Amino acid sequence: MMEGCESRAVMKSQNGTILASCASVCLSDDFNMIDTNGNGDGRCTSSIGLDIDFDYFEIDVFKQQTNSNSCNASVALIDNDFVTNLTGSLSNLANFPTALQWKSKFPPQVCDGGRLEFGNCSCPEFYEGNPYLPNGCQVVQACQNCKTRCQSSYNRKGNFVYFHCKTLWRASFLAFFIGVGVVLLALSSYWLYIFVKLKREIKQKAKHFKRNGGLLLQQQMSSDEGVAETTKVFTVTELEFATDNFNDNRILGQGGQGMVYKGMLMDGKIVAIKTAKKVDESQVEQFINELVILSQINHRNVVKVLGCCLETEVPILVYEFIPNGTLYELIHDPSEEFHLNWKMRLQIAAESAGAVAYLHSSSSAPIYHRDIKSTNILLDEKYRAKVSDFGTSKAINIDQTHVTTVVLGTYGYLDPEYFQSNQFTEKSDVYSFGVVLVELITGKKPICPTGNGGWINLATEFLTEMEEAHMLDMLDARIISEGKEDEFMAIAEIARKCLNMNGKQRPTMKEIAVYLDGVRSSHIPIVRDLDM
Question: How much is the pTM?
Fold first, then answer.
């Protein structure tokens, strides 16, 4: 058999005798060929006898000189049907099926579908078909549906057996182990990061605890069983849990000394958690001493300190939670559902005075509050007064009469004498309490705006009205019908005594508390009894 254009193959014996010949003719350049026998498949065939000495023959292929796109002959002699039915001894066959293939002495001109190696045109590995035809080489059937590479298999003797798709089990296992290794490396790195982070946090907490006086507090607690029973040292984790990581939604209020959050401890107890502003390291010992003293205070009208946290950069204090807000809110921002009547105002004034008097004289060491104002007087579920916020409080020795310090406090409540001398005495707390009394009877704020854009001090305005006997004109209209005139005047007079510019002429908090109890019981005491 021969394929090609304008080619002729002649098979000759050694002596030149022509044994067989075949010629192919192309009708056009698109390889539409007919052979000399009239076949229309573009191939020509010729048969030879069996008495050929295959050791001595020649095959010549002649190429016609044309402009057609042609290639040299591919020759084979085979009877496929006979090979399929081949049985018996070959020596008894009348015809012997034979296949012959040779290459031309002329180099091939075209190898469209295959690859050219050593003058031969053949299909590449994993392909089959006619390499001399365009797109004549196609992927073998066994490899057509491979998702991966195709490969050939051989037996133990090295003989080709079959084609098949390459399995990925090795690559899959390799990818799996690489993936596992990457995951393990990532997890190891993550846990190493967590370990280093936790170790750093523990070290930082220990540093803060020491700097904030934790060792001193532990020493105080070990020497005083009462302090150990009433004061708990919280971890920052406990307080983060209680406040939902100090969520803004938990903020109860913000003052000059820090932020106050509402929190719930793990045992379900509701508390107020105050984050203090940065504490000077030189004041750490004083801070711890004050905390210890406040932990020992057991007064029904003083907010109880439950404990502290010293692991953070600044100390955190934990107080009992007081549900009904501040006195300031009830006076100046009243709700339609609740009215703070005159009787309740007298009660709150008397309870607050008693609490401050206790701090000044009844505790183990005198404590100056230093920031008495209506926002630091809280109301519990029964609207009983609770004095709070001891962030600027000072504990002093019994024989001390004052503390010299930088002026701290709230404008409108600040003692003018303290402002001028930097010396804070117990009478400075008295002045601040006097402003609270004026708020209770007038309903006005400690600093009031004027019509021309300025500000007026409530204490100054009150003293002026008292001197001009116009006190009744300043009374809160909401309570005029709820009390007696002599009660209003009695409270106004004690407030005036508290606001005396000379601190020595002011009454003590204990005297004020006794006087207010008398007003509440309708046994109004004589004001001159408080004169110094």
Answer: 0.60
